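User: quick one, sequence for these tokens?
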């Protein structure tokens, strides 16, 4: 009897090793290396004499490909269409990931309700029965004779159902529950996820079926399974939301057919997800008037300008070492801005506990929010409120200078549209920002000028 060969792989990154180890040599994670029986090697792709079985495939010239036919279609949700780059692409494979209970299945089922009006849609669930799907569809108001549901986890049965029903759109919930019976590894393992995703990719490209795949995330926040999973698909969307908030953010981490880092905003209500067409207004709702330590900035989420409120609180340190805390703002950058504020702005913030928070669950990762953060910190330290109709946009350098940011005219247009009257921006030596009707633009060369313009110091 032939000896069964085993391989060892990391459940976090998918790296294969010839022997077990307590620490993965690739990603450095501990206790993630597990054993799996190696799949038998086959020669299904070869004929006798070593000739390939796929010799009939012929390359064609790029000029012979017809692109006149529109390959995009609308999903019925404007926010999702925006994130996808103007609609879903026929024959594409889209991966939607998110934490448990955030609303991934709700989002997909609602989309199916819109798509089934003009397309034949097959919803495959490996986590719910068809009766449970029916009850959830009734709660969401989803129905239609062209929406087919299937409760199945075997890949072979799913592919057979696709061959029999010939849907235009396929939704798989989730990829971690799907398994290929030819492999002996359990569902959700590295080999199963890779093999099932490859089969779905071949289905999407070969039969021009648009496939949406739901994926779970691990404790680090990335999609569970091998990292190659995100390389195989055309689009990777992350559905995010705070545990105690009704708002959800759909973010594009990868998109072969549009811009990345584009976001769509939804609100979870009793009847499902509702689109939030004006996220800036939503994020600024409830903002207090006349309170020190708050300032508004405009950041770019993909191609969309979004206004965000930065709150800061400085208080005398109770113990020897001052405490620093940041929520939604990079901790290292916040510490750098505090040092710049003390050294270049003349405010003794080193003896204060500092807390920063971004309202609405947003995460600001671009330098354009630096100036608003500086002004919010200075406002809290001096206990002077910033005018409610003032916004600030700009990058801060280590010498305290203000640097220009991209898409400034687009940001200023959004600031003006939301009713702000004044905006502090970096001083431009060459081209000046385009004037906005009803918006006063103050140009400052460094943080000292910006603080005096906003607080009158």
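Assistant:
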């Amino acid at each position: 009897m032939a000896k069964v060969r085993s391989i060892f792989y990391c459940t976090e990154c998918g790296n294969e090793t010839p022997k077990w180890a307590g620490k993965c040599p690739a990603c450095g994670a501990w206790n993630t290396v597990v054993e799996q029986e190696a799949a038998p090697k086959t020669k299904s792709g070869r004929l006798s004499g070593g000739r390939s079985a796929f010799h009939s495939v012929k390359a064609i010239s790029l000029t012979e490909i017809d692109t006149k036919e529109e390959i995009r279609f609308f999903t019925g949700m404007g926010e999702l269409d925006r994130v996808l780059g103007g609609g879903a692409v026929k024959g594409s494979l889209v991966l939607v990931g998110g934490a448990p209970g955030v609303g991934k299945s709700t989002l997909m089922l609602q989309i199916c309700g819109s798509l089934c009006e003009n397309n034949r849609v097959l919803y495959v669930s490996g986590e719910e029965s068809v009766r449970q799907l029916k009850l959830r569809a009734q709660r969401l108001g989803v129905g239609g004779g062209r929406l087919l549901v299937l409760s199945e986890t075997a890949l072979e049965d799913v592919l057979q159902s696709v061959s029999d029903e010939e849907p235009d759109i396929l939704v798989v919930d989730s990829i971690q529950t799907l398994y290929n019976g030819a492999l002996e590894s359990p569902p959700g393992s590295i080999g199963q996820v890779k093999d099932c995703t490859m089969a779905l990719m071949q289905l999407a490209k070969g039969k021009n079926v648009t496939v949406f795949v739901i994926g779970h995330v691990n404790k680090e926040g990335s999609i569970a399974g091998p990292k190659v999973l995100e390389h195989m698909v055309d689009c990777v969307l992350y559905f995010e939301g705070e545990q105690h908030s009704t708002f959800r953010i759909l973010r594009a981490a990868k998109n072969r057919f549009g811009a990345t880092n584009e976001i769509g905003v939804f609100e979870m209500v009793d009847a499902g997800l509702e689109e939030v067409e004006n996220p800036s207004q939503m994020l600024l709702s409830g903002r207090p008037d006349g309170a020190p330590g708050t300032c508004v900035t405009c950041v770019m989420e993909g191609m969309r300008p979004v206004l965000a409120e930065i709150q800061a609180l400085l208080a005398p340190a109770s113990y020897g070492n001052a405490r620093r805390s940041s929520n939604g703002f990079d901790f290292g950058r916040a510490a750098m801005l505090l040092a710049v504020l003390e050294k270049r702005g003349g405010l003794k913030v080193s003896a204060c506990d500092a807390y920063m928070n971004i309202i609405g669950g947003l995460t600001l990762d671009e330098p354009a929010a630096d100036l608003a953060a500086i002004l919010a910190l200075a406002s809290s330290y001096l206990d002077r409120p910033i005018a409610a109709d003032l916004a600030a946009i700009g990058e801060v350098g280590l010498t305290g200078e203000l640097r220009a940011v991209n898409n400034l005219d687009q940001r200023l247009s959004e600031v003006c549209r939301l009713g702000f009257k004044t905006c502090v921006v970096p001083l431009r030596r060459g081209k000046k920002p385009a004037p906005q009707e009803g918006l006063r633009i103050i140009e400052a060369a460094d943080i000292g000028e910006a603080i005096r313009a906003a607080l009158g110091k």
